[in-house]
Design goal:
The chain is of the alpha/beta class. It has two domains: about 220 residues, no CATH class; about 35 residues, no CATH class. Helix content is about 35%, strand content about 25%. The chain is globular, with a radius of gyration of 23 Å.
Length: about 270
């Protein structure tokens, strides 16, 4: 039986209420921002076989400090080199435009944005072969916060601040397959998928073998995998209850309780 995991309780809970409206070519997630608020914009260039066959793109946005934002190292950036990138005209002073090229059927993209700022991302078709390709058709199937994995190089837990799961429509991958990837993302990351470092972003491209090993099939997800989210919620509730019982009140609170009890005692005796 295959292993199971989760993107995060926030994403899992949100998955049940996300609208299934398809979007063609581009989708941007960003808040209306006030002057002086910096923004990170990520363009994901969807290339074959992901473009032809369909698949899943998980987009993760994590905040970094202003100092880290200003000192971001240079790196490969397809978006800056793209003269047709329409997001360039939306940038203001202090903003950054990043780009990655995703081609594997499961592609996980982490990118950064400035603390206190905002972010956006869009998906566009990318094909350098010149051959006729089907249009890029995508559907957002989950959105939320929380989740993550343990970094296999440092041993530290990596928290995912914002997560969006995008199903890329195609003949070989169903929406059920993408939901299986959603549920099993932690297990995929634990298998050390190949990664490519871009400026401001990291792309993880798990192999088909890694995905098959980690991901629940639609049949498994329907039969028992849906229970995982409820088990996680129950475990979190138990942990919270145990922690609450072990907490001690502060001295100031205990003194306040004594004074109140003393005052009530005086009132009754009077």
């Amino acid at each position: 039986m295959k292993a199971s995991g989760f993107i995060g309780f926030g994403v899992a809970a949100a998955a049940a209420v996300v609208a299934y409206a398809a979007f063609d070519g581009e989708r941007s997630h960003a808040e209306d921002r006030k002057d002086g608020v910096m923004k990170a914009q990520l363009t994901i260039y969807v290339a074959p076989p992901l473009l032809d066959s369909g698949g899943t793109v998980i987009v993760v946005a994590n905040p970094i400090s202003r100092a880290e934002w200003q000192a971001l190292p240079d790196g490969d950036n397809p978006a800056e080199a793209d003269p047709n990138n329409t997001k360039k005209k939306e940038l203001r002073e202090g903003d950054r435009l990043f780009g990655v090229e995703a081609s594997s059927k499961v592609s996980i993209v982490e990118f950064v944005y400035p603390e206190g700022g905002t972010f956006g991302f869009n998906l566009v078709a990318s094909d350098k072969s010149g051959r006729s390709r089907p249009p890029l058709r995508t559907r957002e199937i989950a959105i939320g916060d929380g989740g993550g994995y343990t970094d296999w190089e440092t041993g530290k837990h990596v928290t995912w601040d914002y997560v969006s799961v995008i199903h890329v429509l195609g003949p070989e991958v169903s929406e059920g397959d993408s939901r299986g990837v959603d549920v099993s993302s932690s297990e995929i990351m634990d298998l050390h998928p190949p990664k490519t470092i871009y400026k401001g972003a990291v792309l993880y491209s798990p192999t088909d073998e890694q995905v098959d090993k980690a991901v629940l099939t639609p049949e498994e997800l329907k039969a028992w995998g849906w229970r995982i989210r409820f088990v996680i919620g129950a475990m979190l509730a138990i942990v919270a209850a145990v922690m609450r019982r072990g907490l001690h009140e502060t001295e100031a609170f205990e003194e306040a309780k004594k004074r109140r009890a003393s005052a009530l005692g005086c009132q009754r005796s009077g």
